[in-house]
Amino acid sequence: MAHPVEPVLVLAGVAKGYGRVTAVRDLHLELFDGELLTLVGPSGCGKSTALRLMAGLDRPDEGEITIAGEVVAGARVWQPAERRRVGLVFQDHALFPHLTVAGNVAFGLGGWPAHRRRSRIGEVLGLVELADLSSRYPHELSGGEQQRVALARALAPGPAVVLLDEPFSNLDRNLRTQIRGDTLTVLRETKTAAVLVTHDQGEALASGDRVAVMRAGRIEDVGPPDRVFHAPANRFVASFMGDADFLPAHVQGVSLHTEAGPVASPDLSLTKTADLEVALRPHEVTLQADPAGTARVTADEFQGACTLYTVRLPSGRTVRSLQPHTVRYPVGAAVQVGLADQVAPTVLVDGEAVAPGHNSEHRLSQ
User: How far is CA 248 from CA 146, 347, 360, in A?
Assistant: First the structure.
């Protein structure tokens, strides 16, 4: 998506520790107006800490945070959550049980004139399709309805950024998909900039205009979902953001070869001594039944429209292949393994991705 010159949220060199544990380190991130950024990573990677720092619920040890052009955290600056133009949506909704739906939404509008407050409550409840439930209490609502009240409350004051901390994780699968879709629709219709923290890779890819992947307190990769999935920055991102198998690669003549066949190589020179690997997604691996084939099917996993096969190569390494459910390869069958047409798998040099057209310190000498 096209970005304006000035981001609405900036984290510059942000770090935070708790005792001897460093939760986030040297965090750099930008969010633009109207953009939805998903922040994903394994448990304990620091994503929720990062969100708390953005919200003003924790104070960074280092670095600077800017919201809507105003520095809200830095060496000599600190604004708590209530003074930041930020809306918050939590995993447990955090609704006030003694207040009605309208009362919960009005919570952040205390300084507004009464007539304007009433109008705004009606407006945001209309956005989340809860106008008819304004007089109900949280215990009278379903989980999905409670989630929509939390979103309406976050949107009501007109924040520069909405921060959502795993807001759908307590919902069952079908309801989660529906409520997530409704939430994204409201955020996009209102052109609200938002950060969604999730541990679910599929949710991160399906929801964000951009995806930021965290590990051990750092951002490993950030970019559009299709780029992060198909051309990950490194080995960790490739394996974390979807099924991936890794095969050693070597230079043969003017091309790069793996046990599964030749690979489209980046237009680079790579050293013969570099640790070369290729990351393969299951949809990139082809199978062909062949009694003389040197690979064997060792497992199958029926997934409805597709079946995921695990295949052992002559070296003992395994790769996975995703095939239509109409194609069957019995466990133990001999097969030939190849790569799908027009596939350009990620090539890794010492664990870091090498992209076509990019410079690399690793050079290939013939």
Answer: 50, 10, 19
Stretch (H or E) spanning 164: strand 161-165
Fill in the amino acid letter for 280.
L
Q: Look up the pTM and report it.
A: 0.89
pLDDT tier at 24 (50, 70, 90 boundaries)? very high
pLDDT digits (tens, 9 = 90+) for 313-328: 999 999 999 999 999 9
Number of C-beta neighbours around residue 46 at 10 A: 24
Using DSSP, state whether 348 is helix, strand or coil: strand
Secondary structure of 211-245 as H, E, C letters: EEEEECCEEEEEECHHHHHHCCCEHHHHHHCCCCE
Give domain limits for the chain.
9-239, 243-354
Helix ranges (H only) for 156-298 are 173-189, 201-207, 225-230, 235-240
Which CATH number is associated with domain 9-239?
3.40.50.300
Give the count of beta carbons closer than 10 Å to the beta carbon of residue 252.
9
Phi/psi for 227 (5° steps) reads -70, -45
Give the fold, CATH level 3, of 243-354: OB fold (Dihydrolipoamide Acetyltransferase, E2P) (2.40.50)
